[in-house]
Amino acid sequence: MSNATITTASLMALKQRREPIACLTCYDAAFAQLLERAGVEVLLVGDSLGMVIQGRPTTLGVTLDQMVYHTGCVSRAATRCLVIADMPFMSYATTERAVETAARLMGEGGAAMVKLEGGAWLAETVAQLARSGAPVCAHLGLLPQSVHQLGGYRVQGRDPEGAERIRSDALALQEAGASLLVLECVPSALAESLAQTLQIPVIGIGAGNRCDGQVLVLHDMLGLTPGRAPRFSKDFVAEVGAGTGFAAAVEAYLSAVKDRSFPASEQTLA
Ligand code: KIV
Question: Is the pLDDT of residue 24 over 60?
């Protein structure tokens, strides 16, 4: 593993040489160090922290101040990984607000990229952020911030119209200047075809093993999520054996992402 800092250019290079990109969510300095040492390339300070850290039923109550705080905790500890910060619910409802949000997440929080959820309607916002020097990760498929509009946490893009909408949104966001795409809970065939079509890397979660990389919520892959974890996730602590430690579980995740044995068929949605 090289000690070079991971940049958007490094992620493009990984895509070009077909080496899957390993990403995990991360919310604090201790785990940021552990994940960086294991060789994870991208740390996502996800607003999933509202659910796994704060115990909320959805991500909607997470504030920008909280995202800036957790992004700072992660970015101070991880100096090599590329740190992406989620823009919380409604913090990018207008382009002006999005620019102010990105300024805080990158300036105060130290993120190297910001992530927002939504389709072609965000193209102008993505373009303005990119022009202002803020690399953008788009997020399509299941959009947790839109859970009330979607009517639940459901697989997206199963029908031809839904799949076509995701495809055209992805192309519009790439065209607008997005540097990366997270694709959540879509059929693996759709994710594979998007990874082949787009120039930018596509990171999947519940999107099969033919994406350019994988992301999981850290607490799900460490078996720390109370209740039933999502079907597309996997408890890597259970796999390596409880008592072996979190570092061994993260190493097992990393190697399973790199050799595409994760996600396997049982974690893949059709
Ligand atoms: O908030 C988050 O953790 C995310 C991942 C589920 C991709 O957006």
Answer: yes
CA-nearest residue, atom 4 of ligand 1: 46
**Residue 205 near ligand 1, beta carbon < 6 Å:** yes
2: in domain: no
1 in a structural domain: no
Residue 115, annotated ligand binder?
yes
- For tokens 């700072």, what's the residue? 72
Q: What is the CATH number of the domain that holds 64?
A: 3.20.20.60
Looking at residue 263, what DSSP letter applies?
S
**22-46: average pLDDT:** 98
220 lines ligand 1 (CB under 6 A): no
In a domain, 3, yes or no: no
Which pLDDT value is given to residue 267? 93
| Amino acid of residue 234 | K
Q: What is the pLDDT of residues 190-217, one digit of tens each?
A: 999 999 999 999 999 999 999 999 999 9
Which residue range is the domain that position 100 belongs to?
Answer: 8-267
- Is 234 known as a binding-site position? no
**Count of structural domains, the chain:** 1
Looking at the whole model, is its pTM more than 0.90? yes
With a 6 A CB cut-off, is 225 part of the ligand 1 pocket?
Answer: no
3-class secondary-structure state, position 80: coil
Contact predicate 42/22, CB 8 Å: yes
Residue 36: per-residue pLDDT: 98
Q: How far apart are CA 82 and CA 8, in angstroms?
A: 8
Q: Which atom of ligand 1 is nearest to the CA of 48?
A: 1
Q: Pick the more confident residue, 88 or 269.
A: 88
Please state, as a whole number, how many other Cβ atoms lie within 10 Å of the Cβ of residue 17: 7
